[in-house]
Design brief:
Length: about 150
């Protein structure tokens, strides 16, 4: 690459280069300002967590079921898909019937994914032992009490 070519590249992307330099400089300036202007007080309870006037009790490390994370991922996935449908709804007149068919296929794929999640029990919050308690092992017959 010759010198004139590199100058042309820099000249072509000067706005991005200035933006990048200013952004990095601003971040460094804010970090340095916080370090110089920040308080240096040390006290016995300075670094203890305190929220809403309540002292912490126990540990913050809770063991949560993986179901919480699965539901969070499902929410993010289906929420992002709703954004795609919103973009389609905005441009429905321009996309015509072809766009409508593509959106319908998209919705059907989403529904198939949701049906699959329900069928494998990924959205079932009841623990397995609670499900066993709900199932009655003895079949009841409503006609047994009507004897002559």
């Amino acid at each position: 690459m010759s010198m004139s070519t590199s100058i042309e590249v820099i000249a072509h992307h000067w706005a991005f280069a200035i933006f990048f330099i200013v952004a990095i400089g601003l971040c460094c300036l804010m970090l340095a300002g916080a370090w110089f202007l920040g308080g240096r007080a040390r006290a016995r309870h300075k670094n203890t967590p305190f929220e809403s006037g309540i002292d912490p009790v126990g540990t913050a490390r809770l063991r949560l079921s993986a179901k919480f994370y699965l539901v969070a991922m499902f929410f993010v996935i289906f929420d992002v898909e709703a954004l795609y449908l919103y973009a389609w709804a905005i441009s429905v007149r321009e996309s015509g019937w072809v766009g409508f068919i593509e959106a319908a296929i998209f919705i059907l794929v989403l529904l198939a994914g949701l049906v699959y999640l329900v069928r494998i029990g990924a959205l079932d919050w009841t623990p397995a032992r609670s499900r066993r308690e709900l199932v009655n092992p003895e079949p009841t017959n409503s006609h047994t009490h009507q004897q002559r």
